[in-house]
User: Fold IMP dehydrogenase/GMP reductase from Borreliella californiensis.
Amino acid sequence: LKINSKFVKISHSALKESHPHDVLT
Assistant:
């Protein structure tokens, strides 16, 4: 689960760059 969390952070970071508004989601 910890590894998955790491991927989530990377995905979240990528989404932040692509869709800054998605940061709230």
The chain has one helix and no strands.
